[in-house]
Amino acid sequence: MTDLEDVESHFAFGENWAAYAESIGEEEIGEAERGLLKLLDRDEIEGRSFADIGCGSGLHALAALRLGARSINAFDIDKNSVATARALLTRHAAGASWSVTEKSVFELDPAEHGPYDIVYSWGVLHHTGNLDKALRNATALVGNNGLFVIALYRRTTLDPFWIAEKKWYMRASPNAQKRAQTAYRAALRLGMAMSGRNFSEYVENYRSRRGMDLDHDIHDWLGGYPYEAILEPEVDDFLTRMDFEKSRSIARPKTFGLLGSGCDEYVYRKNS
Hints:
This protein is α/β, with parallel strands linked by helices. Helices cover 44% and strands 18% of the residues. It has two domains: 7-155 and 228-270, Rossmann fold; 159-223, no CATH class. α4 links the parallel β1 (49-53) and β2 (71-76).
């Protein structure tokens, strides 16, 4: 039986981030800053310690530093993501207080790695192979009155299909993956045409909330395994029982999921 918590069973997210990170510049950094400020006020970031679990390219860790975070400790299970994040922070945040460590959320010990004023994990915990355990481990790193900031895939009717697709895609040949990307892109174009939206303008202005361009985002979506999804009432119930109180959320009800799922975003404050 495959251990879904083992990095060897995961899609190669780090390779995708490494390919994307070559294009990161001031425009992408500025967009990441704006994304953070949709969830947190600047004064909630300034002077605070910040943990980024599943840091990917390191773009959001960099954005937090630019917005005044006192220190950043970033973690990722993928060695390529760790190398990419270190390179990005070395290039853009020399002299700032930061570290990037190759470590799974399941290996984070509050006594050693916490507590933090802000624990942030955007689009990550649903890819760990055990969302419930990942949430428990991540929340344990939040200090008293600290903030837990997460984005998680919204459940869809077609989740069983997408789980099967991701399992296939992860093991498919590069040529087969390219064909799947082309098919998905064509379906996206058709869906936008049917709703009266301009696909070319969409591509030109595309800015992922996670900090990726459209082509890398499509690859990330099609291959993102392990995969779990959750709805806002379930998140609220879980975190309330963990003694957290909702500060804000950007969430939608369950969708059909013909083109996949989007991420709902949550900010919770620890009560004690």
